[in-house]
């Protein structure tokens, strides 16, 4: 599968969000990563489905990767499906029944993702793999942009990749947190094929240069 670069709008300028999203897509981004936080599962509060709908109405046609850090999660799944999500990822701790929640996502015609926090064992995938289109490995603890990459997450990516290679289905392996130009290649070498970067892209002065440098590192 080709590598996908997914800027996290958590680090965008929210006062002009539509232009920011247009700018990173024009600069070569593949997917928009949309972080939803509830001040309950994580100690931060961000954006909901009306913001996704506003981006779609603004004319954003790229895939949008919704990362739900909310508890309880099920009721928001249909709201984000209607608002225009392409992927919806959930944390297993936020639902009584992850299998059913992943099924709700897929029943809405959306690609379903499961998120592994740094302290979540890969065994959480047992019995869930047949409901999963995407596995998101957190390389920081969820809640904030701009945190430092946790190197042990590369072992987690390798462990997930080994499980996926044993299975027949095509599942995306995404990494989220602290990804920069200088570590994106290590994440790819560990087995990731979808790369979230918030502060590294939106905190840079030239989105084209930053995304091109990431692409060059991935293709080197
Ligand atoms: C953290 C979020 C990330 C975050 C990444 O909870 O899930 O998507 O925005 O930001 P950076 O790339 O700055 O670590
Ligand atoms: Zn995220």
Descriptive tags:
binds zinc ion, 220 residues, EC 5.1.3.1, 8 helices, 8 strands, binds D-xylitol-5-phosphate, metal ion binding, single chain, eight-stranded parallel sheet, ribulose-phosphate 3-epimerase, metal-binding, alpha/beta, globular, TIM Barrel
Summarize the structure in words.
By secondary structure, this protein is of the alpha/beta class. The protein is built from 8 helices and 8 strands. Helix content is 35%, strand content 18%. Strands 1-8-7-6-5-4-3-2 form an 8-stranded parallel sheet. Helix 2 runs parallel beside helix 3. It is globular and about 45 Å long. The protein starts with a strand and ends with a helix. The structure holds D-xylitol-5-phosphate (DX5) and zinc ion. D-xylitol-5-phosphate binds next to strand 2, strand 8 and helix 7. Pfam families: Ribul_P_3_epim (PF00834). Its EC number is 5.1.3.1. Its cofactor is Zn(2+); Co(2+); Mn(2+); Fe(2+). One of its GO terms (molecular function) is D-ribulose-phosphate 3-epimerase activity.
Into which percentage range does the β-strand content fall? Answer: 15-25%
**Total count of helical runs of at least 4 residues:** 8
Mind telling me which CATH architecture this is? Alpha-Beta Barrel
Largest sheet properties: 8 strands, parallel
Name every ligand kind in the structure: D-xylitol-5-phosphate, zinc ion
What is the domain total for the residues? 1
- CATH 4th-level superfamily: Aldolase class I
* Structural class estimated from helices and strands: alpha/beta
């Amino acid at each position: 599968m080709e590598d996908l670069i997914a800027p996290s709008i958590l680090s965008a300028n929210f006062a002009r969000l539509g232009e920011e999203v247009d700018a990173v897509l024009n600069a070569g981004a593949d997917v928009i990563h949309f972080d939803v936080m509830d001040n309950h599962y994580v100690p931060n509060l961000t954006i909901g489905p009306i913001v996704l709908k506003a981006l779609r109405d603004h004319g954003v046609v790229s895939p949008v990767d919704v990362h739900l850090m909310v508890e309880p999660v099920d009721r928001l799944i249909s709201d984000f499906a209607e608002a225009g999500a392409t992927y919806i990822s959930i944390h297993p701790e936020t639902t009584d029944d992850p299998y059913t929640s992943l099924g709700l996502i897929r029943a809405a015609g959306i690609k379903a993702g499961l998120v592994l926090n740094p302290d979540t064992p890969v065994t959480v995938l047992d019995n869930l793999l047949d409901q999963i289109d995407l596995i998101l490995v957190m390389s920081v603890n969820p809640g904030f942009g701009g945190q430092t990459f946790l190197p042990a997450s590369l072992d987690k990516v390798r462990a997930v990749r080994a499980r996926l290679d044993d299975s027949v289905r095509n599942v995306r392996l995404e990494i989220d947190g602290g990804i920069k130009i200088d570590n994106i290649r290590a994440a790819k070498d560990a087995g990731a094929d979808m790369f979230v970067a918030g502060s590294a892209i939106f905190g840079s002065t030239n989105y084209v240069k930053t995304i091109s440098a990431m692409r060059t590192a991935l293709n080197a």
